[in-house]
């Protein structure tokens, strides 16, 4: 009976060691996964930051372009008004010249 108890104890010890080895391997895999997940989180957060920064830059550029476009439109309207005023003035001068020659 003593040999049977010793053999059972050795079998139990071997199973425990096997279980400890398997659990240790699982823990190692989980730690590697955790590190990989943390790296992925950092990459995604950095990409999100870069995307937000690019979006803000594009909005700024869009606003700058819009502002310049508005300035150019106002200048065109001003020039059109001045051109119309000059045309009217030339027509009046032409009419005055014609009446003076009659």
Question: Notable features of this structure?
Answer:
1 helix; 102 residues; mainly alpha; 98% helix; 0% strand; rod-shaped
Strand and helix layout:
Layout: H1 2-101
What does this molecule look like?
This protein is an all-alpha fold. 98% of the residues lie in helices and 0% in strands. The chain contains one helix and no strands. The protein has one helix spanning 2-101. The longest helix is centred in the middle third of the chain and has 100 residues, at 2-101. It is rod-shaped. The N and C termini lie far apart (148 Å).
What summary fits the major beta sheet? none
Question: What is the residue-averaged pLDDT?
Answer: 93
The end-to-end span amounts to 148 Å
- Radius of gyration from the CA trace? 43 Å
Task: Output the structural class.
Answer: mainly alpha
Helix amount, in percent? over 70%
Instruction: Report the strand count.
Output: 0
Residue runs with pLDDT of under 50 for 5 or more positions: none
Residue fraction in strands: under 5%
| Overall outline | rod-shaped
Instruction: Report the total helices.
Output: 1
Following the backbone from N to C, one meets helices and strands in this order, namely: H
Summarize the structure.
The protein is mainly α and 102 residues long. It has one helix spanning 2-101. The longest helix is centred in the middle third of the chain and has 100 residues, at 2-101.
